[in-house]
Amino acid sequence: MRLSSRIQHVVPGGDDGWEIYYRARAMAEAGETVTMLSIGDHDIGPDAGIVAALTRSLAAGHTGYTPVEGTGELRAAIAATRPEPTAPEQVAVTCGGQAGLFAAMMAVLDPGESCVVLDPYYATYAQTVRAAGGVPIIVPCRAADGFQPDAGAIRAALRPDTRAVLLNTPNNPSGAVYDAERIAALVALAEERGLWLISDEVYASQVWAGSHRSPRALPAGEPRTLVVGSMSKSHGMTGFRTGWVIGPRAAVDRICELGVTTTYGLPGFIQDAAAHALRHGEAAAAEIRARYGARRAAALAALGSGPGFRVVPPAGGMYLLLDIRETGLTGDAFAARLLERCRIAVMPGESFGAAAAGHVRIALTVAEPLLLPALREIAAMAAGLAMPAAAGSSAG
């Protein structure tokens, strides 16, 4: 039987960029010891107070259907986290940030219309545009510019059918935190050309240098920005699948209607736990921030500098991007060799677009006694691969 063209082209060629992760997971499930530095899942669970709130809600019988748009308590708690004025009615609760991203695309794109995706990008971005019937336009952010977006390059890439720009700050995988001038330039371009801005801000709680800027905080950005957020990174609640979209009331109302045909809302006990986390879990969120800040500092010190690699110090997020082009390998080849030789799993930069090719992304999601030796092994392998090329160069 024939499948739809849309679903067959969500992942072109059948490669979704996660092959190394799937291979590493299969090895671990077979009993091999693998250091997993591939995906952004925390090594400890959520705070005990959050789990207790969920347990209380279950015991109280909050196990039935909930309002599809989210409970009033959770919508109000999410709205209260925003620095700019936000009403609970401007919040649509979604099944994680990924569902929020899909809902935002469905809200702004008609079939065949295009959306700018800034490269490097999270591995699902282009897929999500295609899943919504849209066409991704990939615009690179240059490593030489610190992976900051260039409004001029975006302007040059726009088509008559372009309806939106998808941005992510702090950025996954680069760790770039878009500066105020770049955000203002994006808002000005969106206002001029009648574009939506879809702003993925799931790492906003993890900023190490500079400060987080949301386009929605600018007067011209507020009516044309859809903010995607999540509990996963800030509160260690990845498996709770609690996310949201914040935006103009008219757009949020339509996104809530989409929820009727997809997830039909989140379980009440999960929403109660999420509301508790937002209202009473600042200490838990601060502990997570501190943990990744400390790991970032320790990781940079452990890697140092050496032949075969260059560290891209992240201004935000929970990852390191390592430039390994001096080894002569692609990110895919380096990651595959690292997994085979050292049983260490990282994500190839090519999973995140052409701008990150020749890089690997390292998730800081294991404790330092595991993380730091693994980083030293990565550095040693990169140096060993670079040495023959360096020797040949000096001999010439």
Q: How are the SSEs ordered, and which strands pair?
A:
Elements: H1 5-8, H2 19-29, E1 35-36, H3 48-59, H4 72-80, E2 91-95, H5 96-108, E3 114-119, H6 125-131, E4 135-140, H7 151-157, E5 162-168, H8 180-193, E6 196-200, E7 225-230, H9 232-235, E8 242-246, H10 249-261, H11 268-280, H12 282-303, E9 310-312, E10 319-323, H13 331-342, E11 344-345, E12 347-348, E13 359-363, H14 368-395
Parallel strand pairs: 1-11, 3-4, 3-5, 5-6, 6-7
Antiparallel strand pairs: 2-8, 7-8, 9-10, 10-13, 12-13
Helix pairs in contact: 3-11, 4-11, 5-6, 5-10, 12-14
Kindly describe this structure:
With 396 residues, the protein is an alpha/beta fold. The chain has two domains: 150 residues, Aspartate Aminotransferase, domain 1 (Alpha-Beta Complex); 220 residues, Aspartate Aminotransferase, domain 2, CATH 3.40.640. Helix content is 43%, strand content 15%. It is built from 14 helices and 13 strands. Strand 5, helix 8 and strand 6 form a beta-alpha-beta unit. The longest helix has 28 residues. The chain is globular and about 60 Å long. The C terminus is likely disordered. One of its GO terms (molecular function) is transaminase activity. It comes from Paralimibaculum aggregatum. InterPro entries: Aminotransferase_I/II_large, AspAT/PAT-like, PyrdxlP-dep_Trfase, PyrdxlP-dep_Trfase_major. Pfam families: Aminotran_1_2 (PF00155).
